[in-house]
Amino acid sequence: MKLSKKNIGFLLLLMLFAGVATAFFVPRRLGLPAQELSDGAVEIRVAQYLYHTGIIMPVRTAGVDWSETFPCLRDKRSFEIGWGDRDFYMSGSITAGLALTALFRSKASVVNVSGFDADLANDFQSTSPFSQKKLRLSAANYKRMVTWMLASVVFQREKPVFLREGFWGASSAFYEASTINAGTYSIVNNCNVWNSKALDAANLPVPMWAGIPQPLLWMLSE
């Protein structure tokens, strides 16, 4: 049976769709160890803002003090961290040119942190995310996630390379990101993928590929 160009195109499209669906709904790892939650467990949130996600954590807990790394968090109780293309993330505006450059010709990436006065334990609401998932991590798994995140930051003389204040004033900031751990920002390696890798380091179930927020939040169990 000879396939026409139209049929070949349809089969290729079907295979592509099947591959993406598999990546969204098949976990990156099977047989993850159970979280051994105790008095040292840490509560975090994964927040979704349309197409973007961020991870919200306490500033100080489980032997980790983020304000020692990011001074802008010194007087804050919780904060959100995210990763993205430098020019797009730091622009504060969305344009087609910036978006296309970020997706296909990114020059550099950044880590952004934004501090909040609120405590995560008290019905925390950040900047009105579309949705958020509450998670609890064992102290050991939390520290694994922290280690992975910090490996995404460029340090000089044991201090992260500060670029400028974030959009929330002195309590937020952008820092230079390292491509060694996080890779280069692209259409297949975006902010949601970065978050999924961080959560994977904490032994949480994440999709094989989390290019959009919905599969990531769906797979995470509260």
Structure description:
The protein is of the alpha+beta class. The chain has helices spanning 5-25, 86-91, 96-105, 139-150, 179-182, 191-201, 213-219, and strands at residues 42-49, 52-58, 60-61, 64-65, 78-85, 109-116, 131-137, 155-156, 159-160, 162-166, 169-176. The strands form three sheets. The protein has a seven-stranded antiparallel sheet. A two-stranded antiparallel sheet has the order 3-4. The radius of gyration is 19 Å and the shape is globular. Mean pLDDT is 84; it is low at 7-21.
List keywords for this structure.
11 strands, 7 helices, 7-stranded antiparallel β-sheet, 222 residues, alpha+beta
What value does the Rg take, in angstroms? 19 Å
Task: Assign a percent range to the helix content.
Answer: 25-40%
Number of domains: 1
Measured by DSSP, the beta-strand proportion falls in 25-35%
Task: Find the structural class using helix and strand composition.
Answer: alpha+beta
| Element order: H for helix, E for strand | HEEEEEHHEEHEEEEHHH
Poorly predicted spans: 7-21
Give the termini distance in whole angstroms.
51 Å
Q: Order of strands across the biggest sheet? A: 7-1-2-5-6-11-10
Extended strand count: 11
Overall shape: globular
Q: Supply the number of helical segments.
A: 7
Nearest-integer average pLDDT: 84
Q: What can be said about the biggest beta sheet? A: 7 strands, antiparallel
